[in-house]
Amino acid sequence: MDRVKTGTIGLDEMMHGGLLPQTATIVEGAPGTGKTTLGMQFIHHGIVHENEPGIILTFEQFPAQYYRDAANFGWDFRKLEEEGKLRIMMSSPEVSRAYLEEAGGQIEEIAREMGARRIVVDSLSQFERLAEDPLELRQTIYSFMNGLKREGLTAIFTWESMTLLGGVEQHKTTIPFVADTYILLRYVEMESAMHKALLVLKMRGSDHDKDIRQFTITSQGIQVQSRFEGREGIMSGSPHQMTDSFMRAFVKR
Amino acid sequence: MDRVKTGTIGLDEMMHGGLLPQTATIVEGAPGTGKTTLGMQFIHHGIVHENEPGIILTFEQFPAQYYRDAANFGWDFRKLEEEGKLRIMMSSPEVSRAYLEEAGGQIEEIAREMGARRIVVDSLSQFERLAEDPLELRQTIYSFMNGLKREGLTAIFTWESMTLLGGVEQHKTTIPFVADTYILLRYVEMESAMHKALLVLKMRGSDHDKDIRQFTITSQGIQVQSRFEGREGIMSGSPHQMTDSFMRAFVKR
Amino acid sequence: MDRVKTGTIGLDEMMHGGLLPQTATIVEGAPGTGKTTLGMQFIHHGIVHENEPGIILTFEQFPAQYYRDAANFGWDFRKLEEEGKLRIMMSSPEVSRAYLEEAGGQIEEIAREMGARRIVVDSLSQFERLAEDPLELRQTIYSFMNGLKREGLTAIFTWESMTLLGGVEQHKTTIPFVADTYILLRYVEMESAMHKALLVLKMRGSDHDKDIRQFTITSQGIQVQSRFEGREGIMSGSPHQMTDSFMRAFVKR
Amino acid sequence: MDRVKTGTIGLDEMMHGGLLPQTATIVEGAPGTGKTTLGMQFIHHGIVHENEPGIILTFEQFPAQYYRDAANFGWDFRKLEEEGKLRIMMSSPEVSRAYLEEAGGQIEEIAREMGARRIVVDSLSQFERLAEDPLELRQTIYSFMNGLKREGLTAIFTWESMTLLGGVEQHKTTIPFVADTYILLRYVEMESAMHKALLVLKMRGSDHDKDIRQFTITSQGIQVQSRFEGREGIMSGSPHQMTDSFMRAFVKR
Amino acid sequence: MDRVKTGTIGLDEMMHGGLLPQTATIVEGAPGTGKTTLGMQFIHHGIVHENEPGIILTFEQFPAQYYRDAANFGWDFRKLEEEGKLRIMMSSPEVSRAYLEEAGGQIEEIAREMGARRIVVDSLSQFERLAEDPLELRQTIYSFMNGLKREGLTAIFTWESMTLLGGVEQHKTTIPFVADTYILLRYVEMESAMHKALLVLKMRGSDHDKDIRQFTITSQGIQVQSRFEGREGIMSGSPHQMTDSFMRAFVKR
Amino acid sequence: MDRVKTGTIGLDEMMHGGLLPQTATIVEGAPGTGKTTLGMQFIHHGIVHENEPGIILTFEQFPAQYYRDAANFGWDFRKLEEEGKLRIMMSSPEVSRAYLEEAGGQIEEIAREMGARRIVVDSLSQFERLAEDPLELRQTIYSFMNGLKREGLTAIFTWESMTLLGGVEQHKTTIPFVADTYILLRYVEMESAMHKALLVLKMRGSDHDKDIRQFTITSQGIQVQSRFEGREGIMSGSPHQMTDSFMRAFVKR
Predict the structure, then answer these.
(1) What is the per-residue pLDDT across A162-220, written as a single tens digit (0 to 9) for each?
(2) A199 and chain B: CB distance < 8 Å anywhere?
(3) 20 to 30 A Cα–Cα from E197, which one of B44, E153, F134, F248?
(4) D234–E32 CB contact, under 8 Å
(5) Do C167 and B168 touch (CB under 8 A)?
(6) ipTM score of complex
């Protein structure tokens, strides 16, 4: 099956080639972990290397912010938008529900017009507060995701988490159950510095790498590296060294 | 007593041959742990190897999604449905309560018509939100389970848990008390990767294996493997190496 | 003082002969820990070995379920009921409060008629939701317990706990304060398997064994074994090996 | 200053002779830790060894229960009550507030009549639910305590805690601030058994022993023993051995 | 700058001479940690050694209680009050809000009349419940503190904490932000006994000692001692020995 | 790109030269960690070394308090204000919302008039309580931040945290997502003393140092130092020594 490359070095490899086409992916992380960067990289890569136009749907940030942020990685979003390959759609939270309800409406129209194949929704968290009943919310989001898939779009939804450092993550919503792919970005404290970890927890319809990998945000975007060596409890955000290595040191003597 | 084989390698062994006929099983897990896969495997195995037609009752996912997901394991659900051996019934959450109340209604009719012996309800979590009073909800679910049993069905209910990584699981509902069998699927972090663990916590009317076993999702479905060696605190999701092995290393010198 | 033997091997020993007559015991545990089995064994032992007829009062499960479950241990509850030595009384949760209020009513009558000496109430948890005011609930339960005692009955109340694995148990209700005896059943993870632990936390009017003991459910019912060796933190559900043994290993060299 | 001996071996020593006269003491503990036993011992010791008549004010248990419980320790409460040296006053929770409000009423009268010097209120927990506003409740209890003191009574209030095993105890009420003395009874798991610990946390107007001591309930009542040796984290309920002893073992070699 | 000596040995040193004049200090601690003693010592020292009259404003305890408590340390508060150097003002919680609102009212008058320079408010916790809106409460307290400062008073506010033993202290109110100085008193379990720790967390306008120091309550009042040696996690209330010393022991061999 | 130097030694280095112009920064910390000091230093440095006038917008503290606090570091805020280079604007919480809504109003006017380039908002926490709906609040704050940026201002918002010591920080609001830069100040217990740690968690549009660094408040303001050596779990507030160093000690022998 064809894969939709995210363009994030290492991540496509972890997903055995990339995302499955016409699926919905949730990328969850705390502030500064790089969710939006991953999304922008996905859109930029699609346009520039795969000839797949893309949409960024935002409920808070102005297009200008995306232009500026993208420019840091050498991505000229303004130009791409002028060329009709990118469209940054902004909506205030007040009208976002309407967007959802008439999903087949404006977004559909624009997607068809520009031949969009990818979309980033930044962020799913703003949806979260639109319905009081969690079941109703879940249905709305599920319908919205299905609407995007029907349009032939492969979608990334960013999701904000305020768990700065590990611990037991016990979500109140069950939204990740409706996504096809679920990627976690986490902070990890090691040697008196904050590192970043990436994990593909779930990928419907495909095998995937289960490693917890380090990643950095470079001037070329996100780069996923090797997994953490000799540490236990990484997902807690504050791993400790494994007694394993301790043992080995003794036994080898 | 005859056993209802789940077809999941290793799991039937853990349950001393399989599930007991006409019992209700809860399979609980976080997103991506393989609950639905286990359920589909149970249905597929029944139809293909035991000549037992089956029903999948879904409150969210479209039949097409099950067709796609099953195809990944080489299971042709569309064909089985056409042959009348499988029936994927979909219900929106709004009418699900009605389904429950007239349990003897549509489901009963279909089950008899096709001679169904197995059913997967995907998922129990959607029931959870239908009643505000936990006692009333428990009664409704208990009645529903009993209704299925009376029809001669052996049932698997998937149950969504958002506890991504261990910790103290303190459920607010007491639904697992009404199930005959209670199976937990959990994520376990080891060596900078996410592994999966399976545990049969409760099995009414039969002895069972109490091991916490590793399992993987392969192209043939779920495969349960051996238990974890030399680790303490597996159910916490972040086990550490046992000092035992540490000691042994020293003492043996 | 005479003791009321539970028939559970090891447990009577821990309680210096058995329960005190005309007392109320709470047996608390997670799903699958064996609360109901302990209760059935108590009733069966009374009838068969002590010639003491018994009642099982249930608010959810049908008598047929008890027949089936008892049969697994070779106990013929149907026959005992036909002989008038056992009575399984079922009540829907709706009428359970009425049962409580007219405690001296139907239960009293039946108990006298059949000369019952033992009763199992399965489960106390269903009472828990009948009153919103915890003080009122506590009073109702206390009165109910006293009513049973006045009838000369020795009572076991099962109590459902959803704490699957240890941690700090901080109950919201204070019901255990009104019971004479308080027995805890807990899961304990050791060597990648789930073990079961039993503890007599409180026994009014008698000394008792304070050990935390392992137990298993065999084809003869519950069998309490020796205590856990060389482990700390058993009640946390995830014990670790004691450094003690570690030390000893070193010092002995 | 004269001390009011509790008669509990070891505890009086810890309090440099006993309680201060006309003070209010809170004894807090989980079910089965011995709060009521400590209170009964305090009353019995007063009557028999100090010639100080005493009152037990109960909001739940019948006098007969105290007779039975006391008899286990060889204390004949029925006889003491007949001799006018003991008075067990019972109140249903409904009228307890009235008792409080007219504190100077019935209790005062009885106390004067029999020349009572000691009182046990079993338990303070039932007060806790009588007022919704915590500040109002605190005032009511404070007034009640002051009323008892004015009558020349030295008072022990039992207080129920459902924290079975340590952890961070974060009370919602601030009642212990109004007590003169605050004693904690706790369960401690050691070597696969449940031990009991006693701690005098606060004693207004007197120095006191700060040790965390083991205690047992014997046929003579509560006996406080030496402190725990070589353990850290006792108040957590699940102490571990100190690395200290570990070190010493090594260094001594 | 001149300092306002608290008279507590060691604490003045930690604050580089004492409190800054006309500042508000919060002293927080669990029951029995010595908050009120620290406050009384501050008032007594001011009157006797610095010739600074003082006020104790109480919302619960009667003056007689302060007389008794002070007498334990050899401080004759009754006499000081007769000499016009001390004033113990009592207010019921009901009128406390009024006190706050007309801060410039009665307290101001008394302070001027007697030339008071110091005040202890015992306790701030009672304020906490007077307003439902935390922002409104904070404003009220801030205004009250400023009112006292304008009168030339240096103020200590006691604050009750029910966290008996460490753990993560996550206050719901943000009151400590409005105080100039914030002192924590904590229980620390070490060698099976409860020790006390003192920490100056914040001191606006002055450098201060950041050590976590042990302290005891002697017959002369509070005495702050040296810091804890070779322990980690003191603020958790249950420190463990540092592996540091462990290492040193090994390496030195 | 030009950088806006904070003047805090070490911090500018960590941010590769300083803040980005016209961005909003959140500085979060517990009481006494130095948030306001960092803000004042930012304003003072701007005026004195960069010739950039600044505004301090306060919702609680009086200007006099800033004068006093600044004087401790030798910064003459009164004089700077007289020279028109500094403006301390005070608002009661009641009118703060109005300030927000007409952001372009008074603040804009003053900023233009004095040519302000920097602003400190002390504190964001007071905003937090102005709207019940978190989404509405977030929008208001985001608009306010954008308003300041449009005026050419580089802004620091202090944010109060009551987490005195580490643990899992799970914010209820998601405000840090709208900030460009997010700096955490934390207490860290080491060797029986409280140290302070600083961390730049997020910096939009720029690479930055990910180290967790120690810092102290000296008579010259905040000074950021090197990172912590040989400790794990610093962000928990109670780090432990790494077994790493332990190992090294052994292996080297």
Answers:
(1) 877 765 455 567 888 999 999 999 999 999 999 999 999 999 999 999 999 999 999 99
(2) yes
(3) E153
(4) no
(5) yes
(6) 0.90
